[in-house]
UniProtKB/TrEMBL annotation:
Entries under Pfam families matching the protein: Acyltransferase
Bilayer-spanning residue ranges: 6-24, 31-51
Record remark on domains: The HXXXXD motif is essential for acyltransferase activity and may constitute the binding site for the phosphate moiety of the glycerol-3-phosphate.
Annotated ranges, domain Phospholipid/glycerol acyltransferase: 91-207
GO MF, one annotated term: 1-acylglycerol-3-phosphate O-acyltransferase activity
InterPro entries, alphabetized: AGP_acyltrans, Plipid/glycerol_acylTrfase
Top-level taxonomy: Eukaryota, Metazoa, Ecdysozoa, Arthropoda, Hexapoda
Protein name: 1-acyl-sn-glycerol-3-phosphate acyltransferase
Keyword Transferase: yes
Keyword check for Metal-binding: no
Keywords: Acyltransferase, Lipid biosynthesis, Lipid metabolism, Membrane, Phospholipid biosynthesis, Phospholipid metabolism, Transferase, Transmembrane, Transmembrane helix
Top-level EC class as recorded in UniProt: transferase
Pathway: Phospholipid metabolism; CDP-diacylglycerol biosynthesis; CDP-diacylglycerol from sn-glycerol 3-phosphate: step 2/3
Substrates-to-products reaction catalysed: a 1-acyl-sn-glycero-3-phosphate + an acyl-CoA = a 1,2-diacyl-sn-glycero-3-phosphate + CoA
Length: 273
Protein backbone atom coordinates (compact mmCIF):
# COMPACT_ATOMS: atom_id res chain seq x y z
CA UNK A 1 0.00 0.00 0.00
CA UNK A 2 2.83 2.39 0.82
CA UNK A 3 4.44 1.72 -2.57
CA UNK A 4 1.11 2.35 -4.30
CA UNK A 5 0.73 5.67 -2.49
CA UNK A 6 4.22 6.70 -3.56
CA UNK A 7 3.53 5.82 -7.20
CA UNK A 8 0.17 7.60 -7.09
CA UNK A 9 1.79 10.65 -5.57
CA UNK A 10 4.46 10.72 -8.26
CA UNK A 11 1.88 10.38 -11.02
CA UNK A 12 -0.21 13.20 -9.56
CA UNK A 13 2.85 15.42 -9.20
CA UNK A 14 3.82 14.73 -12.81
CA UNK A 15 0.31 15.56 -14.05
CA UNK A 16 0.31 18.81 -12.08
CA UNK A 17 3.68 19.79 -13.52
CA UNK A 18 2.58 18.96 -17.08
CA UNK A 19 -0.69 20.82 -16.57
CA UNK A 20 1.25 23.88 -15.46
CA UNK A 21 3.98 24.00 -18.09
CA UNK A 22 2.42 22.41 -21.18
CA UNK A 23 -0.66 23.78 -22.97
CA UNK A 24 -0.99 20.53 -24.95
CA UNK A 25 -0.96 18.44 -21.78
CA UNK A 26 -3.48 20.86 -20.27
CA UNK A 27 -5.76 20.34 -23.29
CA UNK A 28 -5.81 16.56 -22.90
CA UNK A 29 -6.03 16.61 -19.10
CA UNK A 30 -8.98 18.99 -19.20
CA UNK A 31 -10.84 16.92 -21.77
CA UNK A 32 -10.19 13.74 -19.81
CA UNK A 33 -11.57 15.46 -16.70
CA UNK A 34 -14.55 16.68 -18.72
CA UNK A 35 -15.35 13.17 -19.95
CA UNK A 36 -14.82 11.40 -16.62
CA UNK A 37 -16.68 13.96 -14.51
CA UNK A 38 -19.53 14.19 -17.03
CA UNK A 39 -19.96 10.42 -16.90
CA UNK A 40 -19.97 10.51 -13.11
CA UNK A 41 -22.37 13.46 -12.98
CA UNK A 42 -24.81 11.63 -15.23
CA UNK A 43 -24.51 8.12 -13.81
CA UNK A 44 -24.44 8.69 -10.04
CA UNK A 45 -28.06 9.97 -9.88
CA UNK A 46 -29.41 7.08 -12.00
CA UNK A 47 -31.01 5.29 -9.00
CA UNK A 48 -33.04 8.47 -8.29
CA UNK A 49 -34.02 8.76 -11.96
CA UNK A 50 -35.57 5.30 -11.88
CA UNK A 51 -38.28 6.66 -9.58
CA UNK A 52 -39.67 8.78 -12.44
CA UNK A 53 -38.18 7.57 -15.73
CA UNK A 54 -38.30 9.79 -18.85
CA UNK A 55 -39.02 12.89 -16.76
CA UNK A 56 -37.01 15.97 -17.89
CA UNK A 57 -36.54 16.92 -14.23
CA UNK A 58 -34.22 13.92 -13.91
CA UNK A 59 -31.53 16.03 -15.57
CA UNK A 60 -31.50 18.70 -12.86
CA UNK A 61 -29.05 16.90 -10.54
CA UNK A 62 -26.61 15.94 -13.35
CA UNK A 63 -26.88 19.52 -14.65
CA UNK A 64 -25.95 20.93 -11.24
CA UNK A 65 -22.92 18.63 -11.03
CA UNK A 66 -21.98 19.54 -14.61
CA UNK A 67 -22.03 23.24 -13.76
CA UNK A 68 -19.57 22.57 -10.95
CA UNK A 69 -17.32 20.71 -13.41
CA UNK A 70 -17.32 23.57 -15.91
CA UNK A 71 -16.30 26.05 -13.24
CA UNK A 72 -13.56 23.72 -12.06
CA UNK A 73 -12.24 23.73 -15.64
CA UNK A 74 -12.13 27.52 -15.62
CA UNK A 75 -15.24 28.33 -17.68
CA UNK A 76 -17.47 31.20 -16.54
CA UNK A 77 -21.03 31.47 -17.84
CA UNK A 78 -23.39 34.41 -18.22
CA UNK A 79 -26.98 33.89 -19.37
CA UNK A 80 -28.86 36.78 -20.95
CA UNK A 81 -32.42 37.10 -22.22
CA UNK A 82 -34.27 35.13 -19.55
CA UNK A 83 -37.21 37.49 -20.11
CA UNK A 84 -37.64 35.78 -23.50
CA UNK A 85 -38.40 32.39 -21.95
CA UNK A 86 -42.10 31.50 -21.83
CA UNK A 87 -42.74 28.38 -19.78
CA UNK A 88 -46.49 28.47 -20.42
CA UNK A 89 -45.98 26.95 -23.87
CA UNK A 90 -43.67 24.63 -25.75
CA UNK A 91 -40.94 25.73 -28.13
CA UNK A 92 -38.25 24.46 -30.45
CA UNK A 93 -34.98 25.74 -28.98
CA UNK A 94 -32.10 26.06 -31.44
CA UNK A 95 -28.47 26.35 -30.34
CA UNK A 96 -25.25 26.78 -32.29
CA UNK A 97 -22.95 23.75 -31.99
CA UNK A 98 -19.25 24.26 -31.24
CA UNK A 99 -17.82 21.39 -29.21
CA UNK A 100 -18.61 18.42 -27.01
CA UNK A 101 -18.42 20.83 -24.07
CA UNK A 102 -21.75 22.21 -25.31
CA UNK A 103 -23.00 19.77 -22.69
CA UNK A 104 -22.18 22.54 -20.22
CA UNK A 105 -24.50 24.88 -22.12
CA UNK A 106 -27.36 22.42 -21.66
CA UNK A 107 -26.58 22.20 -17.95
CA UNK A 108 -26.88 26.00 -17.70
CA UNK A 109 -30.19 26.09 -19.57
CA UNK A 110 -31.88 23.08 -17.99
CA UNK A 111 -32.97 24.77 -14.73
CA UNK A 112 -33.95 27.96 -16.61
CA UNK A 113 -36.33 26.36 -19.12
CA UNK A 114 -38.93 23.93 -17.85
CA UNK A 115 -39.69 20.60 -19.51
CA UNK A 116 -36.56 20.48 -21.68
CA UNK A 117 -35.94 17.57 -24.02
CA UNK A 118 -32.71 17.23 -25.99
CA UNK A 119 -32.41 15.65 -29.43
CA UNK A 120 -29.19 13.68 -29.81
CA UNK A 121 -27.57 11.23 -32.21
CA UNK A 122 -28.32 7.55 -31.64
CA UNK A 123 -24.69 6.60 -30.90
CA UNK A 124 -24.86 8.43 -27.58
CA UNK A 125 -27.59 6.10 -26.36
CA UNK A 126 -25.13 3.20 -26.32
CA UNK A 127 -22.49 5.10 -24.35
CA UNK A 128 -23.35 3.58 -20.98
CA UNK A 129 -23.87 4.79 -18.34
CA UNK A 130 -24.21 8.29 -19.82
CA UNK A 131 -26.59 7.12 -22.54
CA UNK A 132 -28.73 5.34 -19.95
CA UNK A 133 -28.98 8.50 -17.87
CA UNK A 134 -29.80 10.60 -20.95
CA UNK A 135 -32.53 8.12 -21.86
CA UNK A 136 -33.96 8.39 -18.35
CA UNK A 137 -34.21 12.16 -18.52
CA UNK A 138 -36.08 11.93 -21.81
CA UNK A 139 -33.48 12.51 -24.52
CA UNK A 140 -34.83 11.88 -28.02
CA UNK A 141 -32.32 9.75 -29.95
CA UNK A 142 -32.29 9.82 -33.75
CA UNK A 143 -30.27 8.18 -36.50
CA UNK A 144 -28.75 11.11 -38.36
CA UNK A 145 -29.44 11.02 -42.08
CA UNK A 146 -32.00 8.20 -41.83
CA UNK A 147 -35.63 8.56 -42.88
CA UNK A 148 -36.63 7.47 -39.40
CA UNK A 149 -35.01 10.60 -37.96
CA UNK A 150 -37.61 12.86 -39.53
CA UNK A 151 -40.37 10.53 -38.36
CA UNK A 152 -39.10 10.71 -34.77
CA UNK A 153 -38.84 14.49 -34.95
CA UNK A 154 -42.36 14.75 -36.33
CA UNK A 155 -43.61 12.74 -33.37
CA UNK A 156 -42.13 15.37 -31.07
CA UNK A 157 -44.52 17.98 -32.46
CA UNK A 158 -47.22 16.56 -30.21
CA UNK A 159 -44.96 16.74 -27.15
CA UNK A 160 -44.13 20.36 -27.92
CA UNK A 161 -47.75 21.30 -28.58
CA UNK A 162 -49.67 19.25 -26.03
CA UNK A 163 -47.12 18.79 -23.24
CA UNK A 164 -45.40 22.18 -23.62
CA UNK A 165 -41.98 20.61 -24.05
CA UNK A 166 -38.91 22.62 -24.95
CA UNK A 167 -37.21 20.61 -27.70
CA UNK A 168 -33.50 21.49 -27.80
CA UNK A 169 -31.65 20.91 -31.08
CA UNK A 170 -28.41 21.89 -32.78
CA UNK A 171 -29.62 22.79 -36.31
CA UNK A 172 -26.10 22.86 -37.76
CA UNK A 173 -25.84 19.13 -37.08
CA UNK A 174 -22.04 19.23 -36.85
CA UNK A 175 -19.90 20.92 -34.23
CA UNK A 176 -17.27 23.43 -35.28
CA UNK A 177 -15.31 26.36 -33.88
CA UNK A 178 -15.58 28.69 -36.87
CA UNK A 179 -16.84 32.27 -37.05
CA UNK A 180 -19.74 31.43 -39.37
CA UNK A 181 -22.65 29.17 -38.48
CA UNK A 182 -23.05 26.17 -40.75
CA UNK A 183 -26.22 25.83 -42.87
CA UNK A 184 -29.22 24.86 -40.77
CA UNK A 185 -31.02 21.58 -41.34
CA UNK A 186 -34.78 21.60 -41.87
CA UNK A 187 -35.94 19.03 -39.30
CA UNK A 188 -36.33 21.39 -36.36
CA UNK A 189 -38.30 23.88 -38.43
CA UNK A 190 -40.74 21.22 -39.60
CA UNK A 191 -41.39 20.34 -35.96
CA UNK A 192 -42.01 23.97 -35.04
CA UNK A 193 -44.41 24.57 -37.94
CA UNK A 194 -46.29 21.30 -37.31
CA UNK A 195 -46.67 22.15 -33.63
CA UNK A 196 -47.49 25.81 -34.30
CA UNK A 197 -44.78 26.44 -31.71
CA UNK A 198 -42.23 29.27 -31.68
CA UNK A 199 -38.57 28.95 -32.53
CA UNK A 200 -36.45 30.01 -29.53
CA UNK A 201 -32.95 30.89 -30.79
CA UNK A 202 -30.16 30.54 -28.24
CA UNK A 203 -26.71 31.79 -29.18
CA UNK A 204 -23.54 30.70 -27.38
CA UNK A 205 -20.55 33.01 -27.82
CA UNK A 206 -17.43 31.58 -29.41
CA UNK A 207 -15.14 29.46 -27.24
CA UNK A 208 -12.08 31.68 -27.64
CA UNK A 209 -10.29 29.63 -24.98
CA UNK A 210 -10.64 26.40 -26.99
CA UNK A 211 -8.66 25.48 -30.12
CA UNK A 212 -8.81 21.86 -31.26
CA UNK A 213 -6.26 22.40 -34.03
CA UNK A 214 -3.60 23.90 -31.76
CA UNK A 215 -4.65 21.71 -28.82
CA UNK A 216 -5.44 24.62 -26.51
CA UNK A 217 -8.00 24.48 -23.70
CA UNK A 218 -7.65 27.51 -21.46
CA UNK A 219 -10.04 29.41 -19.22
CA UNK A 220 -12.58 31.98 -20.30
CA UNK A 221 -16.02 33.49 -20.33
CA UNK A 222 -19.01 32.33 -22.35
CA UNK A 223 -22.19 34.34 -22.87
CA UNK A 224 -25.41 32.46 -23.58
CA UNK A 225 -28.01 34.74 -25.18
CA UNK A 226 -31.65 33.65 -25.29
CA UNK A 227 -33.10 35.62 -28.18
CA UNK A 228 -36.77 36.61 -28.64
CA UNK A 229 -39.05 33.90 -30.00
CA UNK A 230 -39.80 33.63 -33.70
CA UNK A 231 -43.47 32.72 -34.10
CA UNK A 232 -44.60 30.05 -36.56
CA UNK A 233 -48.32 29.90 -35.82
CA UNK A 234 -49.44 31.25 -39.20
CA UNK A 235 -46.72 29.56 -41.26
CA UNK A 236 -46.93 26.58 -43.61
CA UNK A 237 -44.38 24.17 -45.02
CA UNK A 238 -43.83 26.56 -47.91
CA UNK A 239 -42.59 29.20 -45.46
CA UNK A 240 -39.85 26.99 -43.99
CA UNK A 241 -36.99 28.14 -46.27
CA UNK A 242 -37.65 31.79 -45.36
CA UNK A 243 -37.99 30.82 -41.69
CA UNK A 244 -34.62 29.08 -41.79
CA UNK A 245 -33.00 32.08 -43.43
CA UNK A 246 -34.45 34.51 -40.88
CA UNK A 247 -33.46 32.33 -37.93
CA UNK A 248 -29.92 31.76 -39.16
CA UNK A 249 -29.38 35.44 -39.92
CA UNK A 250 -30.65 36.41 -36.47
CA UNK A 251 -28.42 33.88 -34.73
CA UNK A 252 -25.37 34.76 -36.85
CA UNK A 253 -25.69 38.45 -36.01
CA UNK A 254 -25.95 37.70 -32.30
CA UNK A 255 -23.07 35.20 -32.47
CA UNK A 256 -20.77 37.69 -34.19
CA UNK A 257 -21.67 40.53 -31.82
CA UNK A 258 -21.39 38.64 -28.53
CA UNK A 259 -18.27 36.72 -29.62
CA UNK A 260 -16.53 40.02 -30.37
CA UNK A 261 -17.51 41.22 -26.90
CA UNK A 262 -16.08 38.18 -25.10
CA UNK A 263 -12.94 38.26 -27.27
CA UNK A 264 -12.33 41.89 -26.32
CA UNK A 265 -12.70 41.12 -22.62
CA UNK A 266 -10.37 38.13 -22.95
CA UNK A 267 -7.74 40.32 -24.62
CA UNK A 268 -8.01 42.90 -21.84
CA UNK A 269 -7.67 40.19 -19.21
CA UNK A 270 -4.59 38.72 -20.89
CA UNK A 271 -3.08 42.20 -21.15
CA UNK A 272 -3.49 42.78 -17.42
CA UNK A 273 -2.17 39.31 -16.62
Amino acid sequence: MAAFNVVLGCVMALLIILFTISSIARYYIKFILFIVLSLLSASLPIPLMLIRPFDPRNALIPAALSRLTSRMLGIRWTVRGLENVDDTRGAVVLLNHQSSIDLFVLSELWPLMSRCTVVSKRELQYLAPFGTAAWLWGTVFIDRGARSAQTVLNQQSLAVKEHKRKLLLFPEGTRHLGDKLLPFRKGAFHVAVDARAPIQPVVVSKYHFLDDKRLRFGSGEVVITILPKIETENLSKDDIPALIETTQMTMQEAFTRVSAETKSRLAMQQKHD
